Amino acid sequence: MEDNRIGENITIKTACDEHGSDLESFCRTHDVAICKTCLTSYHENCSDFIIPLEEAALNVKTSTALDGVSASIDGALEKLQRVIEDCGMVSTNIEEQEKNVKKSVQNIRFTVNKRMDELEEKLLTKLSETCSNVKTKNVEFITHLSRKNDEIKRLKKQTVQLKSFDSDRQVFLGTRQIDKIVHEEIESVKVSLSSVRKYIVEIEVNQELTSLLENINSFGQIKIQEKAVSIPFIFENIDQAQTQLYKPVRSVHNTTFNFRSKFSLKEQIKNLEITGATTLPNGHVLIANYTSDKVLIECNDTGQHIRNIPVSGMAYDVTVIDGESIAVSHGESKRMDILNIENGTVMNTTDTKGSCWGVSCQDNRIYVLVESEGIVAMDKAGKIMNTIKCNRSCFDIVAVKDKIYYTDYVENTVHCCSMTGDEIWVFSDKYLVCPRGISVDNIHNVFVAGLMSNNLFIIQNDGKVSKMLLTESDGLNHPIPVCYNKNKKVLFVCNDSGDAIFYNIV
């Protein structure tokens, strides 16, 4: 085993870790240097893509690859330092947000206290008025009884005075008269006593207030929302350096897939015609629904519905521009909007000469399929950079690095061209009918959905080899949007009716 040491910290291994033999070959399929034992043990099916290590390393010293890597490292350090500085602002922002939350709590407390003071004052005023009225009634009743008491005392005095009369006749008549009056007064007192009341002053607390106090266990909840922040960390120099060293190739015949999840958008929206989709920086899928509901549908990679984003018109296709914005095409409305991905605010609107169909973004340049115009390349402000002619029957597009891929559903063809429109290859297959949705993996192999053939093809990056990955038996029924998550290696396919499937691509 031989190790070549460069400087103090870098060790370059020239022997296989597993078998101890010299690394003699390079597998372009798996992007790895291998020994003879590796070749027979793990790479028997890669014979077409095995080259001598010397051939893979040919002219590496004279290429600009290492210079490109060095420049990319400098760029990475610069961007990383910027990210560190931005992250350092998090504590400052949290402190400011903490102050705002405290102020909100104090404002709520002030509002509650003020309202409670108002209710208390209102209740105590009512208490005072009620008690005053009751006391007044009671005083009036006592006064009435006192008058009765005085009247009966007067009658008693008159009774005593009768005894001083000499005539029995006068005593008799006076007695009868006084007895009648006494009887009337006693009956009157009886009636008055029947209305005697004892008062108990209480409070019946509003049940809503009681329920509120019983049900509230806390003033509120402190929540921290963690939002994924998309920080583009892509360096073209590294990609160019790797391309100069070798060109990775993977035969599409070796591509397999594993079912991940399946779900239906019908549970969220009844009126569906799914025509486009894209992968967001946080791994979620944003889906275009070309109906009068005028929404984009966001789901995570398990199919869980996250939210609907209202848009200004029927959304045909959608693409990510950067971590903050997306572009949405509006089909026959002949318009494309750029939206803030967080709140859905329209940042810019561009009118097109024809119907605005498929849309894709590469290096902040937006590529739109405009009917009767072709592929129109423009910047975020809507300034047209160039136009590539293509058939009117081209609806779906994806732009990746230095190439554009699009489908022609009438001619049943898949096209690959340069950014200036120079055709690189054209693919067709009798089993691929009405190709529509299109996406590209990490090494430019192309996924295409057959709308009428109800299948999904993968086409090798040279356009010469293909494989049918999915068919109607896998649940495809008029599939249109296809998008591939390059980081997670997850493929999203959706029928126009809203039935969607996620697959892990191996």
UniProtKB/TrEMBL annotation:
- B box-type domain sequence ranges: 14-44
What the entry lists under Pfam families is as follows: zf-B_box
Q: Which SUPFAM superfamilies match?
A: B-box zinc-binding domain, NHL repeat
Q: Which GO terms describe its molecular function?
A: zinc ion binding
Q: Which organism is it from?
A: Mytilus coruscus
Record's superkingdom? Eukaryota
Can you name this protein? B box-type domain-containing protein
